[in-house]
Each structure stands twice: as C-alpha cells, then as structure tokens.
Write the structure tokens for this entry.
Amino acid sequence: MQNYAQPKPIPLSKIKGIGPAIKEKLNALGIVSAIDLLFHLPLRYQDRTRVQAIGSLQSGQSVVIEGEVSASTIIFGKRRSLVCKIKDQTGGLTLRFFHFSAAQKKQMVKGQMLRCFGEVNLNRTGPEMIHPEYQQINHGDPLPNATHLTAVYPTVDGISQTRWRNYIEGAFLATNNVSVETLIESHKITQLKQHLTTDLYGSLKLLHYPPATIDLKLISTGMHPLQRQLAFEELVAQRLSHLLLRRASVTSPAIAIKSNPDIEKKFLASLPFILTKAQQRVLQQIKIDIAKPQPMMRLLQGDVGSGKTIVAATAALQFINQQQQVVIMAPTEILAEQHLETFTQWFDNLNITTGLLISKIPAAEKRRRLQAIENGEIQIVIGTHALIQDQVNYQNLGLIVIDEQHRFGVDQRRKLKNKRIDHFSVHQLVMTATPIPRTLAMTFYADLDYSVIDELPPGRSPVETVALSNDRRSEIVARVNHACQQGRQVFWVCTLIEESEQLDCQAAETTANELAMLLPNITIGLIHGRLKPAQKQTIMQHFSAGNIQLLVSTTVVEVGVNIPNASLMIIENPERLGLSQLHQLRGRVGRGEIQSHCVLMYQKPLSKNGKQRIEIMRATNDGFVLAQKDLEMRGPGQVLGTRQSGASLFKMADLERDGDLIAEVVSYSDTIIEQNPAVADKLIQRWCPLASNYIDV
Ligand code: ADP
Ligand code: MG
C-alpha cells in the first residue's frame, strides 16, 4: 500500500467570511481546515437550474417559478397571514406567509416581478407555496439560473445555508485543486462496482455542485457511486476508531465488581416501580460483565422511554459500593441537569453523593467541584463534554456511562476512559435510543457487546397520535387548556421554517404570545436556540418542577428530556420533519402513567409524502418500524434522516442505507489496522476528527 504525503492544512482563517465566532462553531463540528469543509457533505439537493411554468407544477415538487404580482393582502383569519397572488403566462399561484415584515408586504406590490423557490402544494384554489424564498426581479434585468443543483447542508444553530454555501465556495478557492487522495483501494472492493477515482478533489466538487444532468434520484438518496465510495471510507474510518479504542481498553485489567445483592434489593425497593423483565435481563448481563477483571464495553439500546437510566443507575450502585467512581456523560446541559436531578432523588437517602460538571459553572464553584471530584467526595459525576477537559481529575474512575451515544464520537469516550491514571481499565456502558438493527450494531461497533431493552414499562399506554389541520387550531388550544386544567403539562413545538433559524425562533415567540392571549390563566414558557444556556436551563427547571404548564419551543427539546407529567404534545407542521425526528419529539410525552396524546397539526394541503408520514406516525409507536419506514420513504428533496443536524456522527454514511457495505468494511478495516496503521490514522483524522469542543445544544 502506498504511503500518502500529508498536504499542509489550510486554516479556516484563510476563507472569506470566517471570523473567530464562526471558526469556533466549525471547530465544534470537527472542522478545522479548508479540506475539512470540503468533507462537510450535502444532506440533499434542490433543483434551481430552471424556471418552471406555473401551469405545469405538481404537488410536492420544490421548484423555481417566476411571475408578476397580481394582488397581495393581509388576511386576518385564525392566523394572520400575508397572501400574494402571482401569475405567469401559464397560470396563477398563491404565496402565503405566516411570518412577515412590513417591508416584505411593501415588496409585493401589484406588477412587481418575483422569482420564488419553494415546495408546491396543489389545493382547490390552485398551486400554493408557503414561505417561499423569493427575490424581486427588476425590469429588463433577468436573474441568472443556477448552473448546478443547490446543496443543502446539515447545520447547527447560527449557520444558515447561504453561509455554508459561501464557506464551501471559499474552501474550494483556498484549496484550488490540491490533491485529496482516497484512503481506500476502491478497486478491491466488490460492493463499489464502478472503477472509482483516486483523487477525491473532483468528486467532492461534484458532490457540492452536481451538474443539472446528474441523476437526481440517485444522488438525493446517497446512492451515487461517489457517495458510496466516500461512505465506505467513512465507515472504515469509524470502525477503525472503534477497533483502536477496544484495543486500548483491553490491554489492561479492570477492577472486578462483585455485586452486593442486598444493596441492590434495598435500592430497587425504594423506587416507585419495579424493573421490567427486559431491564432485569440487561442488568444481569451488565453484572456478569463487570464481575470480570476485564473492562465491560457494552452498548445498551432501548427505545425512547424504555428506562435505560435506571439500569445504568443500578449498575452504578455496585461501583460506589466498591469505592469506584461513576461518570455519566450526556450530550446536552439540559439532559445532564435532568440526570442530576433523577440520580439525586434516587441516591440521596443512600448517602451517595452526586454532582454536576458542565462548562458554565462560576469559577469558584467549579474549583470546589473539581476538588470534590478529585478527592472522591462526589461519587457519581454527571455532566457534558466538560467531564473530559484537562483540568478534571477523578478518583478511582470505575464506570463511565455515555448517554445518547450517537451524539458522541469515539474520541470523547477514549478521553474519558483515559482519565483513570493507574494501570486499570474502566468499565464502559454506552446507551442509545437510535434503532440500529442488532446484526448491524454488532458488526459495526466492533468494540461493544450489545444489549437491548425491548419492552416499555407497564401501564404505559402508547401515545395516541392524531392529525389535525391547523384550521382547527382553536380546538387544539381548547385541548391544551383542558390538559392544563387537569394538572397536566403540555409541549407545543414549532418546527423549523426552512433555512432560517431566526424565523424559526420568531415563530415560536409569536406562537407563545398568541397562546398567552388565548390562555391567560396558564403559565407559559418559551425555549429556543437563541436563548443563552443559563436561560434555557432555568426554563427547563421550571417546566420540570411544574411551574410552567405549557412549554412552547423549537425542536431544541428533542433529546432525552423526561417530564413524566407532560401528557400532551402539539407538533406544528409535522410534515416538515422526518419520521425519526417526530418519534424523538413524541417520545417526550407518554413517560408517566397518564394516557398521553400527540397532536400533529399540519398545514393543508399535505403532499402525498407528508400525508404518508403522518399516517405512519399515527399507526405505530415503534422506533424500529419508524426508522425502517423513514429509510424507505426517502426520495429526492426529502431526505430528513439523522444527518439533518450537523451534530450527527456521520458525514456521508448511513448505517442502514449502507448496510450492504458493512461486511466489506469490517474485513477491510481489519486488514488495514494490521497492515497499514499510518493510513488507519489518516482515515480517522479525516472522518472522525477530535471534537474537543463538542456541541452543546
Ligand atoms: P430512556 O430509556 O428514554 O432514557 P428513561 O430512563 O428516561 O428512558 O425512563 C423514562 C421514564 O420511565 C422515567 O420517568 C423512569 O423513571 C420511568 N421508568 C423506568 N423504568 C420503569 C419501570 N420499570 N416502570 C415504570 N417506570 C419506569
Ligand atoms: Mg434517556
């Protein structure tokens, strides 16, 4: 195998528009050089290469149209909206805005030519676009058409699509045809049937700027040969990082933990519930693991609400009993706070001390906590990635628990386990709600044994899901009122208005104000991505304590939050979300014994695909089924999978879609790790870079 020369990395500061603040955000995503930006691969594509005739539009298409404004009015109905009619030679179309400014209203005067891009809905009155992007066209000054498909990137708070497009353009300028060599020998891999390229630079360019002639279906579903080649590389890199972690972990013995049944009995008896069979079985597997003088490395998979936390806590108990410290790492501060609260409640009367470590604690308090962690006074340490920072030292770190594993890279796990300073290894329990088929999980996560909690706690009736169109908003508001009057709590989620985080937060704000007027006796909280972490935390605490009855939010509440008293979830515009994301959101209710409900409040008319997704949501509560359907339904322009958020672990690959590659990924990575460790290193560098400053939503 050849040895690849390392090109000198071009820093992000060389790219126009990237200042320190953006640089920090990009670093948090593992993007530190111009080449890394090129590997920030599109999620999907839009076709803006031609202007379509209004008369020829079909429902569900995302298209560019041009027309002249024939009328524009503000309608004061159940919801105030700006409605603008435009027409071309072939027909007329309605533009509808629920959030708009006075300036926008002024732009849409009769006779003005507009170019719009958006998704077409066909309803009784003809085609309609809701919140299209639009530009004014000045007389005699036609707008140029895009010459290639437009990429849509996975993103995080505060980086718009336009910015991503600019940064990536800048990265191509800065790198200007450097050689980016493939790190796998594609021709040896039978699953990659075509002879593929060895210099990836051109491939990357093609994937960021596909010509209009490219097979849109193929590239939108991630099945283009170049995408498959990159996915293969990435999967090899990921698996290598897992293999290396396992190697590093098993070289030394771990402390064998002999479980004390009395303590466990007493602890379980203090809980207000008994463990399900599945929880007991998994706990048993864990106890067998930790009784051995080798580190446990176990992946615990269980659907949202299946009760993974208590299993981890019961295992933790045995470590504490043997003077070993336990660390629990969660991907968000909201989740870490919540774990702290739960654990404190469970462990307080056993005289076990819990403590929180997140980055924003005031300095003096932080010093005290670091001290208490170091001298072992805090026995269960709960936190975010702050747990792996250099200044944190542990005493007898015995068990690490990683919650929502898909949000962390292997590197974070390695750093955490390396915090044990003597020659003993640390036991590791990694938890996830992401439904990965068992065989896939077992082959891919080479370093992990696998357990699953495949049953929900009893008395938990599945969340009942109904779909109502938003012209029944007042009924829905009455329902919210009723639930609150009964002492229940309610989530109201306003979903992303595409491409604009600002509008998204604004929508949540408007909704919160509107609901406050309609429901004057109900305490309403508002949470969105533009609030400071401390503000978010306070609001979540109030909601958790029951002081807030109705929480209006953007999708920031998605991961892991547990409020058993919340029994109603309203999701606005569910047709904009993928099934997995809807499932995560819906999983925020139905966590107690109360029958819970989820109202999918859609915007009429629904596209065929949107209708189908809503029907599936109503039909099943099973995360595995939903993940499978999500996969089957992805088509051009509507890939809404887990990669949607920039926080996803994968840049290109998708464990399920690329399942057919896994067997070869496994054998290939096993060979590389033996025969060419230098290439293995480079693969890991490229695809799983250190994200020391991991995302904090
Ligand atoms: P997840 O697996 O999604 O992390 P959690 O651990 O947050 O789920 O548990 C969801 C809720 O179910 C919590 O309120 C928890 O206390 C409760 N719970 C866990 N196990 C049981 C059980 N066996 N019976 C009843 N409730 C349980
Ligand atoms: Mg959880």
Remarks:
- Residues 635-647, 691-697 have pLDDT under 50 and may be disordered.
- The longest strand covers residues 62-76.
- The radius of gyration is 26 Å.
- The chain is about 35% helix and 20% strand.
